[in-house]
Structures are given as C-alpha cells and as structure tokens.
Amino acid sequence: MPITPFHMGPGMLIKALLQGFFSLIIFGWAQLLMDIQPILVVLTGEGNLHGFSHTYIGATLIAIFSIITGRWVYQAIMIFIKKDFSDYQKKLFDVPKKLTLRVCVLSAFIGTYSHVLLDSIMHADVEPYYPISLENDINLILSIENLHKLCIYTGLLGVTIFFIIRSVKLKK
Ligand SMILES: [Zn+2]
Questions:
Q1: Ligand 1 centroid to residue 167 C-alpha, Å
Q2: 7: CA distance to ligand 1 center in Å?
C-alpha cells in the first residue's frame, strides 16, 4: 500500500484480539521497514516499486531485522511513555516494561506477512512468491476501495474492542 498507516488498521484489530501477546509498536515498526524500498523508489525514480521487499522471502528478512531492532524502538518509545503517561494511562494502554522475544517474533512476522498479503491485493507489480513464481494470484480480489475500507473498519473495530476489554479489566 502506498500509505503505510493503512496497514495499522488490521494491526489494531489483531492487537485487540491478542492483547499482551502482540505489540503494535513492533508491528508498526515492521510496516515502516517494509515500505522503505517503495519510498526510496518514489523519491529517486529508480528500481522496482515494490520489488524484493514485498516478497515473502523479503518479508521474512525484514521481520528478522524488525525483531532485532524493534526492542530499541520500543525502549525509545517507553522513555516517552514513562515521562508523559499517568499510572492510569499506563494501565489502560497495557504497556509492559519489556517485550518478550515471543511477542517480538509474533508481531514482526504478522506485520511483514500481512503487509505482503495486502499489497499483493492492491498492486499488480508485487510478486509475493518470488523466486518460486512471478505470479500474483490475489491481485484485485478486493477492489482498492474495499481494501481501504477493510483497513479503516478493522482499525475502528480494533480500537473499540481494545478499549472495551481494557476498561473492563481495569474495573476488576
Ligand atoms: Zn508496502
């Protein structure tokens, strides 16, 4: 997808369902890393728009890189959260002090694989199964408009479910 934030919609729903087993920060970091290649191609006018980064092999490598580097990103964000969030907000957003490796692995791989999946639907130039096949058999199985709607609605649903579950837990 040309606009990385759309990927955060499905991510938010996954967060609502998996709660503490999933990190939206690591997921979001993986989305950003996935779109570095297309952003560079747009800026320089050179290379394949999606290319290797938007294949499942590329996504595997980017997930591993997200896991290794994501903890630093998380720590950096935690400095801001510690400073600016009240105790209530920390509990409401359910931010753990440290992320486990299991959470990082799950969030990064869901992040990069779902990114390839959604971009395969949207962009004809994505070759998800490279080098085994150059086919993209799911291109436009959903219209671009419906795909955008799916991202927005899953995001809204995710935010709603997340805060309902959190506020119920906080009241206990
Ligand atoms: Zn992309």
A1: 34
A2: 9
What's the chain's length in residues? 172
Segment holding 165, helix H or strand E: helix 144-171
Give the domain extent around 93: 4-171
Nearest alpha carbon to residue 111 among 3, 1, 8: 8
- 74 dihedral zone (left: phi>0; alpha: psi -120 to 50; beta): alpha
Which tens digit of pLDDT belongs to each residue from 106-140?
A: 999 999 999 999 999 999 999 999 999 999 999 99
What single string gives the DSSP state of each residue in 8-61? HHHHHHHHHHHGGG--HHHHHHHHHHHTHHHHHHHHH--S-SSGGGGSHHHHHH
DSSP class of residue 3 equals S
Q: What total number of domains does the chain contain?
A: 1
CA–centroid distance, residue 54 to ligand 1 (Å) = 7
The token pair that represents 151 in the structure block = 């991202």
- The environment of the single-atom ion ligand 1, i.e. residues with CB closer than 5 A, is 35, 119
**CA-to-CA distance for 81 and 89, rounded, in angstroms?**
9
